[in-house]
């Protein structure tokens, strides 16, 4: 386990459910996928290292948790505005999903 954080630190994280609207491989990479995510009140572009586990086609429509208030980062010339949350199983990403359909942009509390 990692070091503990305060509840106040946890409250700084804005984690929301996003719905994948579009997905495509990032050219010249083996693991990166460019995702267009519906966050409820806006669409965002994210880059995720999941191509070795998920094809772009199977990502469409998935509801996934997104760390929404992470500072943007330029990855392979694409501005990534958030980070999807996944489980690392033997170096491969396994996505997390709500067990019922929820609105895009719903806040995780």
Tags for this model:
109 residues, mainly beta, five-stranded antiparallel beta sheet, two-stranded antiparallel sheet, 2 helices, 9 strands, globular
Description:
The structure is a single chain. Helices cover 8% and strands 42% of the residues. With 109 residues, the chain is mostly beta strands. Strands 3-2-1-4-7 form a 5-stranded antiparallel sheet. The radius of gyration is 14 Å and the shape is globular. The mean pLDDT is 96.
Give the fraction of residues assigned to helices: under 10%
Instruction: Report the β-strand fraction as a percent range.
Output: 35-45%
Report the C-alpha radius of gyration, rounded.
14 Å
Overall geometry comes to globular
Low-confidence residue ranges: none
Quickly give the structural class: mainly beta
Oligomer: single chain
Q: Estimate the mean pLDDT confidence.
A: 96
SS summary, helix count? 2
Q: What layout of secondary structure does this protein have?
A:
Blueprint: H1 7-11, E1 15-25, E2 32-38, E3 43-49, H2 56-59, E4 63-67, E5 73-75, E6 78-80, E7 83-84, E8 86-89, E9 92-95
Summarize the structure.
This protein has 109 residues and is mainly beta. The chain is built from two helices and nine strands.
């Amino acid at each position: 386990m990692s070091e503990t954080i305060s509840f106040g630190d946890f409250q700084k994280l804005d984690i929301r459910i996003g719905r994948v609207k579009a997905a495509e491989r990032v050219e010249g990479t083996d693991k990166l996928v460019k995702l267009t995510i519906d966050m409820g009140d806006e669409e965002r572009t994210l880059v995720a290292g999941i191509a070795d586990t998920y094809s772009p086609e199977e990502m469409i429509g998935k509801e996934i948790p997104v760390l929404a208030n992470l500072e943007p980062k330029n990855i392979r010339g694409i501005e990534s505005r958030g980070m999807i949350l996944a489980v690392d199983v033997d170096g491969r990403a396994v996505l997390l999903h709500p067990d019922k359909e929820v609105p895009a942009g719903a806040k995780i509390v």
